[in-house]
Structure of DMT family transporter:
Amino acid sequence: MTDISSPSKPSLLNWLEVVALGIIWGGSFLSVRIALDGMQPLWIATGRIALAALTLGALSMAMGLRLPPLAERKVWLHALGFAVFSNALPFTLIAWAQTHVQSSFVGITMALVPLFTLVLAHGFLPGERLTLSRMAGVALGLVGVVVLIGVGALDMGSNTLDKVARIACIGVTLSYSVGSIITRRSPRVDPIAFSTAALILAGMIMVPLTFAVEGVCPRCRRCARRWRWCISG
């Protein structure tokens, strides 16, 4: 697994880090919704991955970290799985889904990630037993999120695409959970180096896919020969 230790008793700094993570992660849904006014979903997903890869790459260089050796194929295989299930797939689904559903609904569904992770960990991680108290805690947290945001966000709507988008949001939570399990099963490696490798792989997947589907211009679906028209118009 990645070299991440979990303190038995969380400190104030740990709680502050959790709050910061919640703000950053939750704010990304609003940012995606704003970006959709001028960009296509695939370009948004690719841009997020590229920005993250550059940021972590710079951090790795500053810390003197190196990517895992290519000879460590098992590490890179896990990094590829993390790239797909925790970056490329969920980022794309979230961006597309938010063209049909509200950010509040996405926020509610993200609360399912711990529940799915607990269920998957029970089957794929030794020692991670699914206890009644754990299930009750996650269920209580989910109810709290629904109450805070409002039950109206759970309305499936009558449009077929709206329903598919809501199912896609559920798929995102499952995808994140799979990515979490893949990370936990990875051979021991520095987490920053592992994440950097995964983001590079995710970029290698998303960049050619986005150009093939959306074309050169990030603002429309026109092909390369319409690029100038898109920029000027």
